[in-house]
Fold:
Amino acid sequence: MSEDQDMGALIGRLQRAKNVIALTGSGISAESGIPTFRGKEGLWKTYRAQDLATPQAFARDPELVWEWYDWRRGLMSPKLPNAGHQVLAAWEEAIPQFALITQNIDGLHRRAGSRNVLELHGNIWRLRCTQEGTVVENHESPLSPLPPLCADCGALLRPHVVWFGESLDPDIIGQAFSLSARCDLMFVVGTSAVVHPAASLPLAALEAGAAVVEINPEPTPLTQHAAFSFRGKAGDILPRIDRALREISRVRERD
Ligand code: BJW
Structure:
């Protein structure tokens, strides 16, 4: 199928769909200047995940882990949402049953205007008390003191993110699975689709008979199952899909 035919078929599916989901990963923020994890320029090329993104690493050396997160907060702080985030924010308004699920912790979907975002892996702008479990919003960059301490009890704070080997918030992942099991179209944007349980969401959607639309410059383990595969950057492809959708809706309204 040519890309034009693909686009036409996708717009047809999108217009007929009752429940639409977008599942995003770090690739959607790459064009905002935030590094991904895997791949040529990914964070895990320079840092070992097990040294930084596990509860064991934090228990061993909280200062080292906090230095890394503080560095990433500094890097993310001036970054702005890109055209890909903006299209998904617009779809929340334009598509009646639309849900946005992200693995990203950078907060850029909310900054783009998305209001209902299921953040599977937490948010780097929130800190959690290691004693009391209370969560506070904090945008200070750089953080002082480092590592930060709880204002109420003085215990160590940790980033409110999900590390390897930790469970996801059961409410959030529960909602994500129940939405996935009743969607008819799922966009999977900018994720290598290897980290579970997030990578199981498209599989749940497929099992329920949904069509998966993958947007990624590189193939992933999901590609073979995708009904539509757009090999390119989210900041190019999502606006193209959005323009095609608006054009067809405009023609329909006119006729
Ligand atoms: C573009 C682009 C552009 C570039 N446009 N695209 C079942 C099977 C096997 C293992 C497990 C399993 N269940 C659980 C596990 C263990 C583990 C896991 O999945 N490991 C795998 C690696 C094998 N999962 C867990 O531990 C999870 N916990 C859990 O399940 O608890 C219960 C349990 C524990 C242990 C055993 C069994 C059960 C927790 C996972 C937490 C992940 N946390 C991180 C860090 C968050 C905090 C932080 O940022 O510091 O989350 S790891 C990292 O990976 C981050 C991401 O959200 C996540 C996914 O990465 P993502 O977003 O896909 O990024 P990349 O870099 O991988 O891909 C980027 C993509 O973008 C690429 O494809 C590019 O091509 C593309 N791209 N530019 C569009 N412009």
Summary: Residues 192 and 220 are 6 Å apart (CA to CA). Residues 234-254 form the longest helix (21 residues).
